[in-house]
From TrEMBL:
The chain crosses the membrane at residues 21-44, 64-85, 151-170, 190-209, 221-241, 267-286, 298-318, 338-365, 420-439, 446-465, 477-496. Belongs to the HAK/KUP transporter (TC 2.A.72.3) family. This is Potassium transporter. It comes from Phoenix dactylifera (Date palm). It comes from the Eukaryota. GO terms for cellular component: membrane. NCBIfam families: kup. Residues 527-741 form the K+ potassium transporter C-terminal domain.
Length: 742
């Protein structure tokens, strides 16, 4: 080996890591920072739209600038960049990531998965745990003893999730309408209806392009945002030197004190507009899964943060000398020669910012759906390389209709801003509360660090929240009503799903009992492989027992399949299948638990069939080599070349050809069962699922009947059927009807 090459390899690896980080930081501009970067368009206008109009003096302008600066510094820079990004769930971020992390590390959540079935998963191997503190023990004991507290915690998380979805409605409406309204600066006679009409056209075009996937136009997003940040920072520097270089003094917190001293209660009520300067900060954490913590930190601290600070300073410098322009400050502060180029870039930047929150909405709904907290919807993966790029048609068109309704209904940027600010601050407060639980129970830090975090950020967010509550009658009611509707939908779906699974667990049948009565039923075995889908990991599902007692026949090889979504982002493919035998070998009965993460991709039915049967064949070979005890389940990792060649020997997709290759490849195997598996697969594979009707018991309360029979029943009838969601071919499907009285 060349010693010089060996000496260069650490440096080359270090340069490669730097290059990767810089590339991710560049890409993050087009995905993460769009919403945060377009805030200068409407922050000052919204802040001075209320009673603060009576205080349009230089001291108040500089006071608002000081508030904006310290808000940007404390919440996005200190809270998110320093603390929250460190609470990732195996590289994933967002409200549900924090909750899933708690579910996995503690017993405080309702979505916790039994550790016994997942002890072999690398994602479930707990890190070296630090010593429990008194605070962590108190918090854990409280939640473990009181089920109502765990229910309240889940509802709190769902509330934050609902507000994020509400942001998906408000962000496009607010940003696009704000950008297009700049036309009135050059065309004063332009009617308000024309502004609304142009905004609606842009919104329709934005949502109509979603089905192409962000990967087709993502290469344009980062340059647009970088051009936008360059424009606003350059104009900011120009305005500072031309109008008021002394505006730099406003970075002192004294100007915050002076602002409230002069404006009083009116200054407090204006905080609902100031909070708009941090809209989109949550995206730094929510979109963490697409990038890395270091890349997001580098992009924000080195580029986004200084550009925004300079932009706000430049706008304040202009307003300090032109207080009559406070209500259209951003476009008024533009030099005449760059007005139209900046207007075009601003419109494009609002589209990018809207795209970011729409993609985040798709992502969080996908996570909620995977964890049983949202009805089944169609999810299309628009990129074969980047898993997180998805498209949900039903949600996309519903968001478009709601955006158009908000734009046409409100027509007023100030009212939309009131709604927007309330939704944003609630999401941030939910994150702060969840971080309190993470710091105490997962990180196990001292009570002083916990109090420092909660008092610093929680008190600031509660101050903004109180100011936003005052504006509930003036548009702030929209996110509250919308989030309550989404919360009801998500809670009802989770409650109904939990009751359905509890019924199946309580009414499962022992296999020995079922086989003992088989002679009296005249049970026969028919050729083929049967895949029986259920939600239980032990015993026989009531649906299958109901089928056998009415139609006493099933396939010669029967595999009970249980699909589980765990509270981890992704499960490696070689750890996904947990396979075991049921009963003596002559029964040819197997159980397979298939583990997915809440961000794992689509599931092609035929590819899944290939993988499952390969894993069963590999399990049978492993059973001989390892002498597994009957009933013991085993994780089947990478299959041998024998089985891989059997199923994946070529790229041809015809089922008959693949099944012939499968049979030929395993024909020489010494195991009779493996040859039988190949023969029975050639005979045909059938899928059996329950087609259940869940109704509340007659003795149930009125509220339970309403939730189960009305809300949950409506959602089940109008959501995608499980077989369709799993992509099971209709010709191979057997559905068993059954009524569950829960």
């Amino acid at each position: 080996m060349d010693p010089e090459s060996g000496s260069r390899s650490p440096g080359s690896r270090s340069w490669k890591a730097y290059r990767t980080t810089l590339l991710l930081a560049y890409q993050s501009f087009g995905v993460v920072y769009g919403d945060l970067s377009i805030s200068p368009i409407y922050v000052y206008k919204s802040t001075f739209s209320g009673k603060l109009r009576l205080h349009e003096e230089e001291a108040e302008v500089l006071g608002v600038l000081s508030l904006v600066f310290w808000t940007l510094t404390l919440i996005p820079l200190c809270k998110y960049i320093i603390f929250v990004l460190g609470a990732d769930d195996n590289g994933e971020g967002g409200t549900f990531a924090l909750y899933s992390l708690m579910c996995r590390k503690t017993k405080m959540g309702l979505l916790a998965t039994p550790q016994a079935a997942n002890e072999h998963l690398s994602a479930y191997k707990l890190e070296t745990s630090s010593k429990e503190t008194r605070t962590s023990l108190l918090v854990k004991n409280f939640f473990e003893k009181h089920r109502t507290s765990r229910i309240a915690l889940l509802l709190f998380v769902l509330l934050g999730t609902s507000m994020v979805i509400g942001d998906g409605v408000l962000t496009p409406a607010m940003s696009v309408l704000s950008a297009v309204s700049g036309l009135k600066i050059k065309i004063p006679r332009l009617h308000e209806n024309c502004i609304v009409f142009v905004s609606c056209i842009v919104l329709v075009g934005l949502f109509a392009l979603q089905h192409y996937g962000t990967h087709r136009v993502s290469f344009l997003f980062a340059p647009i945002l970088i051009a936008w940040l360059g424009c606003i920072s350059g104009i900011g520097i120009y305005n500072i030197f031309k109008w008021n270089p002394g505006v730099v003094r406003a970075l002192s917190p004294y100007y915050v004190y002076n602002f409230f001293k002069k404006a009083g209660k009116d200054g407090w009520s204006s905080l609902g507009g100031v909070v708009l300067c941090i809209t989109g900060a949550e995206a730094m954490f929510a979109d963490l899964g697409h990038f890395s913590k270091l890349s997001i930190r580098v992009a924000f601290t080195a580029v986004v943060y200084p550009c925004l600070v300079v932009a706000y300073m430049g706008e304040a410098a202009y307003l300090s000398k032109h207080r009559e322009d406070l209500h259209s400050s951003f476009y008024k502060a533009l030099p005449e020669s760059v007005f139209w180029p900046v207007l075009v870039i601003a419109t494009l930047a609002t589209v990018v910012g809207s795209q970011a929150i729409i993609s985040a909405t798709f992502s969080i709904i996908s996570q909620c759906r995977a964890l049983g907290c949202f009805p089944r919807v169609k999810i299309i993966h628009t990129s074969s390389h980047v898993h997180g790029q998805i498209y949900i048609p039903e949600v996309n068109w519903l968001l478009m209709l709601l955006c158009l309704a908000v734009t046409i209904g409100f027509r007023d940027i100030d009212m939309i801003g009131n709604a927007y600010g309330l939704a944003v601050i609630i999401v941030m407060f939910v994150t702060t509360c969840l971080m309190f639980l993470i710091i105490t129970t997962v990180w196990k830090r001292s009570i002083f660090l916990v109090l420092l975090f909660v008092i610093t950020f929680g008190s600031l967010e509660l101050l903004y929240f109180s100011a936003c509550l005052v504006k509930v009658p003036h548009g702030g009611w929209f996110p509250l009503i919308f989030s309550l509707i989404i919360l009801l939908v998500m809670s009802a779906w989770h409650y109904g799903t939990a009751k359905k699974q509890a019924f199946e667990l309580q009414n499962k049948v022992c296999l020995d009992y079922l086989l003992s009565i088989s002679p009296s039923l005249g049970l026969v075995r028919v050729p083929g492989v049967g895949l029986v889908y259920s939600n239980i990991m032990t015993g026989v599902p009531p649906m299958f027992a109901h089928f056998v007692t009415n139609f006493p026949a099933f396939h010669r090889i029967l595999i009970f399949v249980c699909l589980r979504t765990l509270t981890v982002p992704k499960v490696p493919v070689d750890e996904r299948f947990l396979i075991g035998r049921i009963g003596p070998p002559e029964y040819r009965l197997f159980r397979c638990i298939v583990r997915y993460g809440y961000k794992d991709g689509g599931r092609d039915s035929y590819e899944f069939e290939n993988q499952l049967l390969m894993k069963v064949a590999e399990y049978l070979q492993q059973e001989v080599g390892d002498s597994l005890v009957n009933g013991e389940m085993s994780v089947v990792g990478q299959p041998s070349n024998l089985v891989v060649d059997a199923v994946m020997g070529s790229e041809r997709t015809e089922r008959s050809k693949k099944r012939v290759r499968f049979k030929e490849a395993v024909g020489a195997d010494v195991r009779q069962e493996v040859r039988e598996l190949a023969d029975e697969r050639e005979a045909g594979v059938s899928y059996m699922m329950g087609h259940t009707c869940v109704v509340a018991h007659e003795s149930s309360s009125f509220i339970k009947k309403f939730v189960i029979d009305v809300v949950y029943g409506f959602l089940r009838r109008n959501s995608r059927r499980p077989a369709v969601a799993l992509g099971i071919p209709h010709a191979s499907l057997i559905e068993v009807g059954m009524v569950y009285h829960v």
